[in-house]
Amino acid sequence: MTFQDSVNKLKNKDRSVWKEFVTSIEDKDFKNAMKHSDYLLKIYPNHGETMCFRGLAFGYMGMNETAKELLDKGLACDPKSSRSWHTYGVYYAYIKDFRQAEVCYKKALEFDPTSEIILRDVSQMQIMHHEWNDLVKTRQIIMLQKPDKASWIGFIAANAISGNNEQALKALNSYIGTFRDGVTPKEECSGMFLYRAELLQRMKRYDEALQVLEVTQSAILDTVSWTKQHSDLLFLLNRKEEASNGYCDLLSHNSENMEYHARFLECQGLPSICETAEDSTKLVNLYSSLMSPTNTFGVSMPRSVRCLIEPLLHLNHVTQPELTQRLFAFAMFTLCERGVPSIWKVFEDVVISSKNRKKTIELFDIVSTECCSSIETNSSWPAKWRFANTSACLSASTETDPVEVDPSFILFAKLFCAYLADYCHQHAKAVSIIDSAIEHTPTMIELHVARARFMKHLGDLNEAAESMNRAHMMDEADRYLNVKAAKYYIHCGKLEIGESINAQFTDPANRDEDRTDLTPADYMYDEQAAWYFHTTGKGVLFRRGEVGRALKAFVRTGEIADDILNDMIDFQGFGLRRGSSVKPFEEMSLYMEHFTLRKEYVESVWWMIVLDLMLDWRKKTQGKHNAFEKLNKWYVEHPEDEVKKEEAATTETKEDEPKSKSKKKKSKNAEAKEKMEAAHQQGIPKKEEKRRMKDDINGVELIKKRDHVAEVEKNIEWLRKRLGMKLEKTFDDEIKSVMLDALQAEVSIRRDKMDDAARHALKTVGGLRKLKSKPAEEVEDFAKSLYIAQVLVHSVLMHLFVLCEKKAIPLDANGGKPTAFTFVWGQYKSFFDNPASPTELTTTLKSKQDFLSLVLAFEGCVVKDETDIDVVKIAHSGFDRQMGEFFYYRLLMVDMGDLAEKFITAAHEKAKIDVEGETSEQHERRMAILHSNVFTGSTHDAVLPPALFQPELLSTADPQLAQALQTFQAIAPPSEKETD
Amino acid sequence: MIGTHRSEPFLKRKVTVMTKSVDPTSKANIVLLEEPDEDEMKARECLSGGLNKFSFGHPTKKNAGTLKVLNDACLPVHYRQWFYDALFTRDIKLSRLVYFNDNLVGAICCRIENLSDLYIMSITVLAPYRKRKIGSYLMHYIINYTKQHTELKRIYLNVHTPNTSAQNFYKNAFNFSEVRRIDGYYTDLTPSDCFELELKIRD
Predict the structure, then answer these.
(1) pLDDT tens digits for A153-210?
(2) Has the keyword Transport been applied to this entry (chain A) (predicted)?
């Protein structure tokens, strides 16, 4: 049954009404839509399509239940109507259930296999789900029916994506065959010819590709792409000299493109890392001549930053330390003299891509420190590190006099030194360097921005926000600083201040007319500002303990991702119709969802999982162990300082206000509901009834309705998909995948499926072992992640052990055979003086009432394993940074709610103790950091002052805690502060 | 891509040509770029250390924060916010900012009193950037301003009595003369006395 059939059921005179009805829904004019559908349903009470469309209209208005009911009813009237199925699919796509949408579309296609609309929608869903072979089939049907440009591009792209380049080329050739001189737009010819060469290149038919490019050169409008592709082909055909000329040409357009540089070097016959003296001399001379005004390459880049950096990138820093240092000194001098505030970003590239980062950092550190002190003492750059050009770096400096430098020179040098220290986790050192620079020139904004960054890494989020605000106040016209200042305030929990800074954008006076009625948060949602919700979530969770609000914010971040995805799907059709090449469509289809790999989205989903697990636990234990609320209460009782008091006061009064407001709101809501119902009866609901965030900013309703475990499962899937999407897998991704397995096990435990849990847990243990079998230097950068993964796995195992014991399930699921479980359990046992069972262990622990010792026990158990020591050492060097997350997972995962509570109380008691020789100011600062970061589990980085771990001071308050801390000190290496 | 060029100071970046009457609160009017005339060029020539490293501007509502930071770093007295707010109620050219490598390093703020006296409220140069004639440039600038406005008869200022280097600067380089000594001028400095110096431009 086709679309036309659904109309044929109506009488002639009513067909115009039907048409109007459909267009009114397309225009989102629901008032008229309701009117028309009422009329139609009166005459044809069993007209399924009308019902379905009416349901869709309700769906658009956010009334999902009514929508679904009507859609089901409509479908029941006529289960063979393609139109009804299609409408159902549109509805599912609207509520972002793309799987169901695809099912519906396919069903619709069954009854009407040639409908273009349905085929188009099906193809979109296939792109969403990466079903490339099916996509080719769908696109072929569309193509055969209506061979216009859009169909051709779609068909060619589908073939190319599915890997059938042969077919794609054939199709492209026949499409190009339809081109007519003077009729076909120039852009299209240009795009298609380039794509033809690209396809040939993919099929490794380089000669033909080159021929295509050379024959069509006059028709190509995108000359840069042409040159790039042409040079690439020459390179692949081993015609290096010609290729080199091409890359020089490209470099003259853009001297900062890394790819051009890399290819250019290859054409010159240089390896990616120059090991021999001969090669490195050639490399240095090459770049020296590129930077000189005249050279044989015909391209001069005297101001290019890349040209300063490239030689460093291709050197072996271990075997050629002196040359590295000289080149670095030359580059640093040039950048400081020029005054480049992004000086660190430039060198960070070199550090990150270095094969031996420690060595590189060491070399850079020596030079930069030496130069800095020279500038400070006699305001001149040491002669030893002065070179006239890149070539001069090949031998020791011949300069004899130190070079006098501008007063602003030191600022950039210090900026570099500070960032280098920050990169090496010496955050306190970074702050002190930047403070001295600020003292020198307080008017340089970048210094304050850098200080805010370092303060954040140091764990003092309040001071970080103040610093960022200082930068913002110095240039209020700078939107970057505005957003950053707002973000830093929100991050440290001072939401009100952050919002007031943000108000420059959210102020109704600055908005478009139709959006003036939105609340600031809703406005940010409309603007798709994911950072705002992500930061709000972290801010309210860690600094205020408002779980519901945090969850809501994280959910909102996810919704923004969905919205953007929806927009992109909408854009696909447009891209096909208006595009002049296949490539953009192809890339968009392949990488459509890749924007969700951004930190904001991924992190939000991780936190959603954590919160959902916690809330689920809270619901199951009837709120007995909600650490966060206790914490929140504690905050209100112990305001850190006057500001905090004021804030608390404002929040209190505000709490009062919203109550009255919420009453008002409620009454408003009630009114709205009544109106809605009335409208319902009349069939004229209003457009503005669409649900908005202000209804439930604290997430109370959200939590009530939410099926936590199901959401966790969904989010685990989501994260798994993202991991699969990454083009390059890092070690971190492997760790994350193990963590996901652990979470999967936890989900199974919550679902009471012990077998599944055991299966996943086993997989996790295996995965963790595999991760730790890597050599230490490879693991180094990911020590933090690995550490968290360990903690997570251990907590899940512990939980599982405890439950297995309670339920008398044998630990080794393989029927008595020794398994990884028994292995891990053996480790626990050896540490705890052989308790007979996990239950005994927990009871002993409970009798000690010492949660911390459990934590340390986990630590110890990791240390016991000889192979782990390196990893643990690395992790411990940043131990304070992980404290938060560490406790967090503990509180959450393990059945230790009571102990967690004890722990928090003890911790607060402990925090009250004064450390000897501390000024009251220092004390307050320490307290602030302690309260806000460590025990709330901020991802950002608390530094516990070493003095806090003085057992003799603590013993008076809590002997057990002191003992535990002693154990801790024994296993932890001296903290950085002491070594500084 | 990594920023290769340090962004130009906003002066060069945004050139707003004003044709209508100037509304100082309007967002569009953040910056006015004037063509330097001969006197201005002459004043700039005295700056040492490469003229291309310097740039010049006037305070705006958006960058007043930087000026505040500069004044707080250089002066023993700290001005309240109204000091900066008031700058924008007067002719904005009565204040001048000097940037060195895009950082604000010197500033002068003046006001007109009795319709005929130009009073220098503050003149500041960051310590590391002194000895580069930035102060001299600022004085030349304000003398040029006074010369161009025929209703102005003299320039005058107050200087803390122990600050002899400043007194010499005004007296020797710009021919200022001492008018009187005011006792108890400063409320929060010791000694609290100051000299009033003046330069007669026209009778």
Answers:
(1) 999 999 999 988 999 999 999 998 888 877 888 888 899 999 999 999 999 999 999 9
(2) no
- Nearest CB neighbour to B69, from listed A303, A440, A442: A442
Nearest to B54, CA basis, from B111, B96, B83, B16 = B96
| Cα(A53)–Cα(A40) distance, integer angstroms | 12
Residues 6+ apart with CB under 8 A from A118: A82, A86, A105, A108, A109, A112
Q: Name the one residue in this structure whose structure tokens are 């770093």.
A: B73
Measuring CA to CA, which residue among A885, A947, A880 is closest to residue A914? A947
How far B68 CA sits from the closest chain A CA (Å)?
8
B40 touches chain A (CB under 8 A): no
Q: What are phi and psi of B158, to 5 degrees?
A: -110, 140
Instruction: Tell me phi and psi for residue A407, to 5 degrees.
Output: -65, -25
Domain boundaries, chain B: 16-200
What CATH number is given for B16-200 in this structure? 3.40.630.30
For residue A688, give the DSSP letter.
G
| CA–CA separation, A91 and B107 (whole Å) | 63
Enter the DSSP assignment of A274: B
pLDDT digits (tens, 9 = 90+) for B55-84: 899 999 888 999 999 999 998 888 889 999
Q: Which of A567, A487, A553, A495 is nearest to A525 (CA)?
A: A553
ipTM: 0.83
Output the CA torsion sign for A460, A461, A463, A467: positive
The pTM of this model reads: 0.77
Tell me which of B26, B70, B71, B101 to substitute to probe the interface with A (most A C-beta atoms closer than 10 Å). Answer: B101
Q: H or E element: which one contains B181?
A: strand B177-182
Helix (H) or strand (E) holding B200: strand B194-200
Chain A residues bordering chain B (beta-carbon distance below 8 Å): 256, 303-305, 338-342, 345-346, 349, 406-408, 411, 440-445, 470, 473-477
Q: What is the CA radius of gyration of chain A?
A: 33
> By the 8 A CB rule, do A488 and A454 touch?
no
Three-class SS of A916-928:
CCCCHHHHHHHHH
Structure tokens at A744: 């999967």
Q: Which two tokens stand for residue A778?
A: 């490879």
| CB atoms A475 and B66 under 8 Å | yes
Q: Nearest by CB to B6, which of A338, A349, A441?
A: A338
